[in-house]
Design brief:
The complex is a heterodimer of chains A (327) and B (296). With 327 residues, chain A is mainly alpha-helical. Chain A is built from 14 helices and no strands. Chain B starts with a helix and ends with a helix. The chains are: A mainly alpha (327), B mainly alpha (296).
Chain lengths: 327, 296
């Protein structure tokens, strides 16, 4: 704001100026520091960010190290006791917590492969030279804009054992017409995974499709000249070309599946028994309904640790593979 | 969904073979469209079924759950909802107000912050940007318990503030807009600076107008996210008249468990606004999602 000349001048000389003392490799080597103005611009966001993102992240960690209870006037620091309890078989929460973690794990394993394979196939189909491509793309994406509550009440009705149309249609084609989709194992898992695939496949499709468009047609041309058929091209051109995009998709899909809440809350209500009660469901219930806040905060950090490890492994494997193919 | 499987075995043909319109290629095209149409029906038919069910009378829906067409065609479910115990249209207005308010908050705060991060040099820039980025992949469950306590202490439980203000701290929004601002040509801005324009004028009169497509995309994504949020409002909204549509649907399902026409009418009311929004902003929404993977 103050010295406009000094912003423009170095650019016009064309030569990069030697960096000023204390400045790190910035993006705009000519610009002077305007710390005051910058923080005025940042202030509204930073206030929200500090109060509702940074503070709660630290505050949550603190809660997990105390015996926090809404019925107690003062909280006592108890170190890692809440975490130790979670890892101690037979404690008040460990059995239910690990059951809920297992439920989250089962759901993730049951849903993620389909959320990768089906969108990949659809994306390959949409990447052909076809008419109405954007129409199909829009249709496949559409369920994603509906909320989890909407898709859950819809599918709970469609999959109802007695009056659901799905069982009726199965009966019409001669299959069993009384499958307990929403009330018994293993059908509840099929339902939760299937509904989630129906709901979010378009989202992954769209990302993968963008990745496909980024693969150079020359590579296919060259592979075809070498006599590679479509399947061979898919294996040796398409899949390697999608590596980075697929790593991203795998990571966000695992994270989304591991955060599953609404589908189980509304369709199966965590049942039968507590079979489909996911980690998020259990944490929310313990923390916000049962007033067991300290334990719930500890659980959320354990879940976070699991997810962080999975993400890191994922990205590391992708990097290793990329390095291997580069060398 | 399994219908995609045959396609795999049908594709071993070279690109050159496809260019000549051989009978094989024509058959392949037909199969391709057949698969796409079947998949599209898998998406469309359940939604159509719900829409039709919502126009059945309560008795019709219970007696004839397998007939597609309402007999008689009736808006009974919608009238029941508008006069019943569950204030669905109130929820609709609550959802609209919350989503609109949060969208505005995100646009204002994120665009300002993104401008500073993209266009200004300042002390602590790397730390601020690093902190914002590092929260992008933190699962929301981490904030659930502490933010509940924070909102409770602020006296915001069961108010619109609970479902708009905490979520307005959008690290994604800042990141997204910053990427866009960095890509804007610096020349126009520098010309304005020579003419004596300050940062606020440059931001309001040059950067924001240029960033209209990015702002529109962020607006649509923010609106959808708030409209569809479920876990948080289920726990922070308490009284029936303060609910939004998503937790409201959950209540509706409990109250009218087997009165399917009524529950489905609720689902339709919750879906129509976002489907209309999607219809008009399809290209923008789909493309912003698409590029997120390529960039990230």
């Amino acid at each position: 704001m103050t010295d406009t000349a000094s912003i423009v001048a170095p650019r016009e000389t064309g030569a990069p100026r030697p960096s000023r003392s204390g400045r790190k490799a910035g993006r705009r080597p000519g610009a002077p520091r305007r710390t005051g103005v910058a923080y005025i611009f940042l202030a509204p966001f930073l206030i929200l960010f500090i109060v509702f993102v940074l503070a709660p992240a630290v505050f949550g960690l603190w809660i997990s190290l105390t015996n926090w209870s809404p019925f107690r006037a003062t909280q006592k620091f108890i170190g890692l006791q809440n975490y130790i309890d979670l890892f101690t078989p037979g404690s008040a929460t460990s059995g239910d917590f690990w059951q809920s973690m297992a439920a989250t794990g089962i759901f993730t394993l049951a849903s993620v492969p389909f959320l990768l394979i089906i969108p990949l196939l659809i994306a390959v189909l949409l990447n052909q030279r076809i008419r109405a491509g954007s129409f199909f793309r829009g249709v496949f994406f559409a369920p994603y804009v509906l909320g989890v509550a909407v898709i859950s009440v819809i599918w709970k009705y469609l999959l109802d054992t007695q009056s659901g149309i799905i069982n009726h249609l199965l009966g019409v084609i001669g299959l069993p017409d009384n499958l307990p989709w929403t009330v018994d194992v293993p059908w509840v898992w099929v339902t939760l995974a299937g509904v989630t695939v129906w709901w979010t496949m378009g989202f992954n499709t769209v990302i993968i499709l963008a990745g496909l468009k980024g693969i150079s047609p020359d590579l296919y041309e060259a592979a075809a000249l070498d006599g590679a058929g479509a399947w061979r091209q898919f294996i040796s051109v398409t899949l390697p070309g999608l590596r980075q995009v697929m790593t991203f998709v795998i990571t966000i899909t695992i994270l989304a599946s591991a955060n599953m809440f609404g589908q189980a809350f509304l369709i199966t209500k965590g049942g039968p028994g507590n079979t489909t009660r996911t980690a998020i469901m259990y944490i929310a219930d313990q923390g916000l309904s049962q007033n067991n806040l300290a334990a719930a905060a500890a659980m959320s950090y354990v879940l976070f640790a699991f997810l962080a490890i999975i993400s890191i492994i994922n990205f590391r494997r992708q990097r290793e593979r990329a390095e291997k193919s580069a060398s | 969904m399994t219908t995609t499987a045959p396609e795999k075995t049908e594709t071993p043909r070279t690109i050159r073979a496809r260019r000549k319109q051989t009978p094989q290629a024509a058959a392949r095209k037909t199969l391709l469209y057949a698969v796409l149409i079947v998949l599209a029906l898998v998406v469309i038919l359940p939604l159509a079924w719900i829409l039709l069910t919502s126009f059945k009378t309560d008795g019709d829906a219970i007696r004839n759950p397998y007939s597609a067409f309402p007999n008689p065609f009736s808006t009974e479910a919608y009238t029941t909802l508008s006069s019943g115990q569950q204030p669905v249209f109130r929820w609709f207005l609550n959802s609209l107000a919350a989503a609109a308010l949060q969208t505005v908050l995100i646009l204002v705060t994120a665009s300002m912050a993104a401008y500073a991060l993209a266009r200004l040099e300042f002390w602590g820039k790397r730390i601020v940007f690093g902190l914002i980025i590092s929260t992008l992949l933190v699962p929301p469950v981490i904030f659930l318990i502490p933010n509940y306590l924070i909102v409770q202490n602020l006296g915001w439980l069961d108010t619109i503030w609970a479902i708009t203000i905490p979520g307005a701290a959008s690290a994604f929004g800042v990141f997204f807009l910053r990427q866009f601002f960095v890509g804007l040509p610096a020349e126009i801005e520098e010309a304005a600076r020579i003419d004596g324009a300050g940062d606020f004028r440059i931001f309001l009169q040059i950067v924001l107008p240029l960033a209209r497509p990015a702002l529109a995309t962020l607006a649509v994504l923010s609106f959808l996210a708030n409209w569809n949020d479920f876990l948080w409002p289920v726990y922070v909204l308490l009284s029936p008249e303060n609910l939004t549509l998503q937790p409201g649907l959950s209540q509706l399902q409990g109250a009218y468990s087997t009165h399917y026409a009524i529950v489905m009418a609720g689902a339709v009311i919750a879906s129509v606004p976002v489907l209309i929004l999607f219809f008009f902003a399809q290209k923008q929404i789909v493309e912003s999602v698409a590029t997120s993977g390529v960039k990230g």
